[in-house]
Amino acid sequence: MKTSLNFLAVLLLISTFSFGQDITKKIDSIIKDSYQKNPDIGISVGFIKNSEEYYTAYGKLNAESQMEINRNSLFEIASITKILTSNLIAQAVIDHKIKTDDYIDDFLPKAYVLHANLKNKIKISDLASHQSGLPDIDFGKLIELDPQQPVNSVTEQTLAAIINNCIELKDYGKYRYSTIGYTLLGQILEKVYGKSYDEIIRSKIIKPLNMTNTLTKDFNVKNRTVGHNPNGGIQEFFKWNITASAGLVKSNASDMVTYLKAVLNNETAIGKAAVITEKIFYKDEKREMGLGTNIVTDEKNTIYLKTGDSMGQSSIICYNRTQNWGIIILLDQRNSKMRQNLLNQIYDTVLK
């Protein structure tokens, strides 16, 4: 019997190994094919399944460099930052600093004075699920002023003018993607913890997970990729400013897989917080939203995902808690169609 059990264990190990090899080969084939069709767009992908990590990457750091993009190459994760911020919000709930249904009134900086029509109306969960009804930053105008660094001119005074002049929430309770909402969440975190957003994300996510290549204010490193706009022109990385909690973190495939591993582990602080973010806070005929994460379901699966687009890079992160897998895709060009097509191909042919 002992021999039979040992034989069964070996068979199971071989089967698992073969299954893992099959998945990684298929993913690599999809990424390689995409790169061959788009040789000017660098790609870095990280995948995790049952704690086993896999990486693939294609392209150079920049046109003049001979250095290949790899798992440690730095990208702008852009609005994927929002799921880090929503995880911090959920951690603050666990820490008894806030509740998701608290109104934002008492947690805002003093510069913000809500109109009487807005008082005791907007909840923290409304900000995090993009249904606050608050007007947003006008990115079109900002891009006209400075196409390389459009958020540079956004200050607390800019935000205060937008919020203090708002007298009505015209679409409160309806989904409308919001940068200002996540900027406010960052400021709410600063108030309840008495620290800067930079210090908070470092102390509660970056340092505990040893994500040494996830950077905030200082990202002048040798393994940084170069961003490109949709026409192929060089695009600068966004500098750190007040909107950081909405989209200014820089990271790589390796660190984001580390983050996914923590998210999928219900015993970690980040994993416990992630479960809170996965609760449905908004639903209509088109979408379901948790805190910062899109929830997509079919007959067999529920996946949680978030996309990110800076002016020069695109990214997407996705995971399935039940099947215990997660994936991060990073592109060095702003190309939302390509990143979505890559995820769709991988999901439909490998993960579904």
From TrEMBL:
Q: Does the keyword Glycosyltransferase apply?
A: no
The protein's superkingdom reads Bacteria
- Cite the Pfam families for this sequence: Beta-lactamase
Which InterPro entries did the record assign? Beta-lactam-related (IPR001466), Beta-lactam/transpept-like (IPR012338), Beta-lactamase-like_AB/R (IPR051478)
Q: Which UniProt keywords apply?
A: Signal
Report domain Beta-lactamase-related positions.
41-337
**Leader peptide range in chain numbering:** 1-20
> What protein family does this chain belong to?
Belongs to the beta-lactamase family.
Which protein, by its recorded name, is this?
A: Penicillin-binding protein, beta-lactamase class C
